[in-house]
Amino acid sequence: MTDACPTLFSPLVLGPVTLKNRIVMAPLTRQMAEPDGTPTDEMAAYYARRARGGLGMIITEGTYEQDGWQSKAYLSQPGIATDAHVAGWKKVVDAVHAHDCKIIVQLMHGGRVCDPRCLNGEPPVSASATHSGGWVLYTDTDYEKNIRAIDGPWPKVTFGPARALRVDDIHAIADGFAAGAARAVAAGADGVEVHGANGYLLWQFINPKTNLRTDDFGGSPENNIRFAKLVGDKIRAAIGPGKLIVLRLSQDGVDDFTGAWPGVAYAEAIGAALKGSAYDALHWASFDYAANRQTDSAEPMPAALRRTSGLPMIANGGIFDGATAETALTSGAADAVAIGRAIFAHPDWAYIVRSGMPYDWMPFDRKYVIRPPLDYGLAYPLALTDPKWPAP
Ligand SMILES: Cc1cc2nc3c(=O)[nH]c(=O)nc-3n(C[C@H](O)[C@H](O)[C@H](O)COP(=O)(O)O)c2cc1C
Taking every annotated instance into account, which residue ranges of this chain make up the domain NADH:flavin oxidoreductase/NADH oxidase N-terminal (predicted)? Predict the structure, then answer.
């Protein structure tokens, strides 16, 4: 085995925790929980298999933190709102820790893009009274269409018009995030990630296109990020200094893949507002971490946020091989990388990258990432001959 990617495989101190390397599994929704949100044994096996592949940390799929308050976004989404949820997550956390891998639970509130079937007839909530254009809830491969027995075009999910949250609602939802974080810690997690990305509630506040407020929670970058900062403060008060708290940010939303912040200057203002906040680290979500889609500067968004916040950055998006990961770290864009689809599809990604083994990643991109029973069987490197390989 060669020692490819020395920076990637060096340890990283992230707030109160130390990762054995800088490879993080990005949060990936699987809809594998019980209908009541309890994490399943299948989830424990899925996460443990990826921990065994040598990751520094896993960020779980988006998890709703509160029953009520219209936070659940997906059918079969896991929750961290009840004692049964805590017991389910404890099995996941213990299985991951057995492989010397950290795990944090991603806490999310769906806001205006919750699947209407999760809302019990209530309207969705958002920063302002806006109306999402809707989106296709599932992936669009023929393979998935086939296993779901869907004939014709993919069904597009539409959402009702959103109710604008009042300030007292904002505080109640932030309290819900804190209670969810306390339960995640009770389950043994190393901390939590607050989902401020990808079109969900906190993103709807951070993105000026969906936040039309004129009070303290809208109208400027500092006001747009205030809700996410409040959530961080309440979580820190609930779980103390010994646990990791990460904030995930993005330009895109699930119902808007043309999303763009108003310039790198906007990222700089968001970064400056997060300096000295309760967050230990930031996490940039995208499909290409280096492409900022802006005209005012070519600097990658994660680099601008890292520079202005002074916080460690986990960069995500389009990192499929070791060389790209190493460059993300040595270029000043990031302190760790989060890998989504490649680890989804390929539990031993870290092993292969470290070995320097040539590997064609693309056949595993999406094709085998549909259901765990399939990916356990198929997304496995045929050339992996050393099952006793010690995790880096
Ligand atoms: C099927 C699927 C599910 C996802 N679920 C989540 C999620 O629950 N939370 C989240 O923040 N991002 C989620 N994402 C976004 C990924 O974390 C990541 O940003 C994206 O896949 C790009 O990274 P990659 O190029 O390494 O795959 C999801 C992406 C996919 C493809």
Answer: 8-358
CA of 24 to the centre of ligand 1 (A): 12
Cβ of 253 less than 6 Å from ligand 1: no
Beta strands in 254-378 (DSSP E): 281-285, 313-316, 336-339
**Partner residues linked to 259 by β-bridges:** none
**Ligand 1 touching residue 287 (CB < 6 A):** yes
SS3 assignment, position 128: coil
Q: Is 209:260 a contact under the CB 8 Å cutoff? A: no
Q: Which pLDDT score, from 0 to 100, does residue 344 have?
A: 80
Q: Rg (Cα) of the chain, in Å, rounded?
A: 20
pLDDT computed for residue 45 by the predictor: 87
Count of C-beta atoms within a 10 Å radius of residue 28:
18
Q: Map out the domains of the chain as residue ranges.
A: 12-378
Distance CA 132, CA 128 (A): 11
Mean pLDDT (10-residue bins), the chain, 392 residues: 82 98 94 89 88 96 92 91 98 97 98 90 96 70 58 74 98 98 98 98 97 98 98 98 98 88 97 98 97 95 98 96 96 96 84 82 49 35 38 36
59 to each of 3, 103, 166, 330, 355, how far by Cα in Å? 25, 6, 30, 23, 24
> For residue 19, which phi and psi values (nearest 5 degrees)?
-90, 145
324 CB within 6 A, ligand 1: no
What is the dihedral angle through the alpha carbons of 227, 299, 251, 154, rounded to the nearest 10 degrees? -160
Q: How many helices (H) and strands (E) does the chain have?
A: 13, 14
CA-based nearest residue to 281, from 166, 196, 162: 196
Architecture of the domain defined by 12-378: Alpha-Beta Barrel (3.20)
Geometric angle at alpha carbon 67, from 25 and 316, rounded to 5°: 20
Would you state the pLDDT for residue 145? 60
Active site residue 138: no
Pull the structure tokens for residue 11. Answer: 């340890």
Ligand 1 atom 12: the closest Cα is on which residue?
27
Give CA separation, 356 vs 1, 304, 321, in Å.
7, 31, 10
The answer to whether 330 touches 7, Cβ cutoff 8 Å, is yes
